[in-house]
Design brief:
seven-stranded mixed β-sheet, about 15% strand, single chain, about 45% helix, Aspartate Aminotransferase, domain 2, disordered C terminus, alpha/beta, Aspartate Aminotransferase, domain 1
């Protein structure tokens, strides 16, 4: 078989494979260009970040830290990473920042490696109450072989029961008290629980993956000032950068900072995807300029959307607290474990609205839950306003309450989205959509 220079093997079978991949990528781009991306864990990047992520850095290595590398050819990347560390410290008000993590979960694995040994006790929010899978035996907690105890949960307030959680911490005496969720409507009442953790000598870890941009934008809470020793997070949710993670701390202790760096490399990363790290640095620079406005507008849109859904007749959780103080909105669509959330998500997808089914308090079956977890951060990024969110809520009602044909609703979804094709809150606000052509 001959392999023409610079091309695929000259067989129709392999050329068809290449065509299939290209067509699927294009189709996915069209789905989100014309549809409403409302998955709470996703976002889009700016044109400037997109250019960096597709650069030559995608194939390079730079093991170590700036100025201390195991490879040659890293001088330019040293400049990038050193700048990124400084910007992350400024944006998050941190004494320490490591920007090498390739995801929020990898950030958590690295943090747990630094904070605990196999067999140690840990306390965290259960997945049934909204904790992330990395907080559970099925994820990073189990990978590190930690003994998990979950906090008692206040369903009405959608947060840990503070008094009961403090009692649990004092009884269990964990090595790590982990806070933060994947279903995350309101700031965690951290200070009292962190104080209980300190009483028993526990490290306090806060997973801010979903709300990291809201924290950095001053619109949620400030965990590093409320008792957290360490904060992890994703760089691609409410913080609108490329996929990746952060490891952040308020500690000034050089020994602790070395443990954190070593936990990332060589602990859980070898190559750490330099193109994504460089993209994070550009996103950090953009966030310095636009982050506060973006975070504020995201929360405003979420609250407007939640209120509009409730007005349409949906069961929106946490009504007594104003539904949400984050980017997320939770809706219940049927009985517990009924699969109503899965059915609703499919109907909405048929209408061009991309969401995800989600367990709500009381559900026990992850694949047949009763609810949806909805996020507005991507729509905010392309200029949606509270008025637009009210129209989006009407789309939901047409599909899920009125029983209208989703294909008819999809036409109106596309018409609305075509008016929102420019990525906002970034340097390159120049008319490009930010989606693949």
């Amino acid at each position: 078989m001959t392999h023409p220079a610079g091309g695929w093997p000259a067989t129709s079978e392999h050329l068809q494979l290449a065509s299939t991949v290209r067509d699927a990528v294009k189709s996915s781009g069209e789905l989100y260009r014309l549809g409403l991306g409302m998955i709470a864990s996703e976002n889009i990047v700016s044109p400037a970040v997109r250019d960096i992520v597709s650069s030559d850095l995608h194939g390079r290595y730079a093991e170590g830290l700036p100025g201390k590398r195991y490879y040659q050819g890293c001088d330019d990347f040293d400049t990038i990473e050193a700048l990124g560390i400084d910007l992350a410290q400024q944006v998050f008000g941190a004494s320490f920042a490591n920007i090498q993590s390739v995801s929020g979960t990898v950030s958590n694995i690295g943090a747990l490696k630094a904070l605990a040994k196999p067999g140690d006790a840990i306390t965290a929010v259960s997945t049934a109450d909204g904790g992330h899978i990395s907080h559970a035996r099925m994820g990073a907690v189990g990978l590190r072989d930690l003994n998990l105890t979950t906090y008692p949960w206040d369903e009405e307030r959608m947060e840990p029961d503070v008094d009961a959680a403090c009692k649990t911490i004092r009884e269990v005496q964990p090595k790590v008290a982990l806070f933060g969720q994947s279903v995350f409507l309101f700031p965690t009442p951290l200070e009292e629980m962190a104080a209980a953790a300190k009483e028993v000598g526990a490290s306090v870890m806060y997973d801010g993956a979903h709300v990291l941009g809201l924290i950095a934008g001053g619109q949620f809470q400030d965990p590093l000032r409320e008792g957290a020793d360490l904060m992890t997070g994703s760089s691609h949710k409410t913080f609108p950068g490329p996929q990746g993670g952060f490891l952040l701390s308020s500690s000034e202790d050089p020994a602790f900072q070395r443990r954190l760096n070593n936990a990332m490399f060589p602990g859980v990363c070898s190559s750490y995807h330099l193109h994504h790290v460089a993209g994070k640095v550009m996103a950090l620079a953009e966030f310095m300029e636009y982050g506060e406005a973006y975070a504020k507008d995201t929360v405003t849109n979420a609250q407007a959307f939640a209120a509009a859904l409730a007005s349409e007749g949906f069961d929106v959780l946490a009504e007594g607290r104003g539904y949400t103080a984050s980017h997320q909105v939770l809706t219940r669509h049927g009985d517990l474990d009924s699969g109503a959330g899965a059915k609703a998500a499919k109907q909405l997808e048929d209408a061009g609205i991309i969401t995800n089914m989600n367990m709500l308090p009381g559900d026990t079956k992850a694949l047949s839950p009763s609810g949806l977890r909805l996020g507005v951060q991507e729509l905010t990024r392309v200029g949606f306003t509270p008025g637009d969110m009210e129209e989006v809520a009407r789309f939901y009602a047409r599909v899920l309450l009125a029983g209208e044909d989703p294909s008819d609703v999809r036409k109106d979804v596309h018409a609305l989205k075509l008016n929102h094709q420019t990525v906002r809150y970034c340097f390159n606000d120049d008319g490009r959509s930010g989606y693949p052509e």
